[in-house]
């Protein structure tokens, strides 16, 4: 028999007993829906938790510290050489020190005739090559490029509002937030357009006649405020670490300030950004093997992910029970079909039909029942998922508008996380696995009836009424 003949015969047999086939398919539909919807809730919980963690900090960032000491008892130094070794790890996208100058006190003047100034108390140095890769968001302008002139810097979103009038003794600053009428005043300076000059000031250990070091700055971009990235994205300045070190060194040299022991102990903090969330654990282990301490959101994310995985398994297991019941229904349907078609099976054998073809017919019928039930079940699962998300979102909005404390549908399933996230998420892999699983359930359920069909005696089958 050709495969087209087998398929045609299977479809004909299924539609011959429409009601029985429909009821059997419905059983598979219910089982498939149960599995897909239950697992989709678990996936939704996981994504909601990751979104919540992402609001707390970048999930692909690792902070490295030199608090630890090596096996010999010597203090490890987190210097440029150590940063280069970290950068050489395969999964690392970029690694850069976060450098705060220890021996620099300065103001940044802006506007014509240096009419305004801000205190440069939050100037941070990082590698120029890391600025664009660190995940900062630009509001205006551009990131400094490798060919940018020295002392090209980035300013925080509200850094311009730190400027005050130079001829005033009190802090004459402008509030960056809207007033009662919703209006926001412009700052005194436009950092992208106006000239910026950094001038050092005397420190406590300086002599009264200390030398002032002056350096022009060029602001290439304004960053969007992101507290997870650091206070400097709000009211600070980010510049190339080599420029900042040079500025500090020139000031110390001009004023004959000696380096302290702490100045030679490397960096206090290095930020590492990895290629993906899945690489964080491996990179942390590699850095810890070097002897350094690390910190990342992985320590929180991993236990939450394991808990979500257990929830998915429990929810999927509950759904699988429904599909098991459907499998029993398929087996029963196929056994009844064999009993009714005993004479037909005998005729097929007398006409010389191969045993494997007879087995294939019944296996394919059972597989088609599973396949059709899987297709319909997945479609209905999408509808159920949409309704659940729609009801949950509307309930959340109504609760926020009323000022209530409702927990929403996610709370009923033991979830929670970022508000506004869907509680049911059906990924592509779940659709494919559900369809394969439903079809396999059909094939497995039809295996016993198919074997029973090929064992029927041809002569007895022909005599069967």
Automatic annotation (TrEMBL):
InterPro entries associated with the record: ABC3_permease_C, MacB_PCD, Macrolide_Exporter_MacB
Gene Ontology CC: plasma membrane
Cell compartments where the protein resides: Cell membrane
Membrane topology: Multi-pass membrane protein
Keyword Transmembrane: yes
Spans through the membrane: 21-45, 313-339, 360-387, 426-448
Highest taxon of source: Bacteria
A Pfam family matched in the record: FtsX
Stretches assigned to the MacB-like periplasmic core domain: 21-289
Key words, A-Z: Cell membrane, Membrane, Transmembrane, Transmembrane helix
One MF term in the entry's GO annotations: transmembrane transporter activity
Domain ABC3 transporter permease C-terminal: 318-457
UniProt keyword annotation of Transmembrane helix present: yes
PANTHER family for this protein: ABC TRANSPORTER PERMEASE YTRF (PTHR30572:SF4), MEMBRANE COMPONENT OF TRANSPORTER-RELATED (PTHR30572)
Similarity comment: family membership: Belongs to the ABC-4 integral membrane protein family.
Protein name: ABC transporter permease
Organism this protein belongs to: Youxingia wuxianensis
